[in-house]
Amino acid sequence: MLPARFKATETPDQRARRILELEYKITALRQQVEHSTQRLEQVCATLPIETLISSPAVRRASAREQARLGEREESLLAASTRSETSLSSTEETVEACKGVVKGHIDRLHQYNEMRDFGCGKFFLFLASRVGQG
Predict the structure, then answer these.
(1) Quick one: where's region Disordered (predicted)?
(2) Which DSSP string do the residues of 37-80 spell out, in sequence order?
């Protein structure tokens, strides 16, 4: 679909010419902005820092930056609180898992003791039979 500025009755040549004119205007505007920026930088370089700091534009920019930093600080504080809560929950989970693992280890030790005792009795039984035979 054609942009609204292009008329449906324009020929491709007219459209191309209009595009070139617009590109020329855009280039001219960019050059003006660049020149104005350079001039502003030159003027600012000659002004004392106190004048620059006390300007309303700098104050507004500083206030915006302070607000942005405040929001960022609040966000980081909230993230830190969430992390601490998560860490605390994780530590509780680890402690619970340690208890479960210790219980399993204790049961394994009991099983091994019973097995060793059972094997010992079996070997004594075998030894007693061998000695009799």
Answers:
(1) 64-90
(2) HHHHHHHHHHS-HHHHHTSHHHHHHHHHHHHHHHHHHHHHHHHH
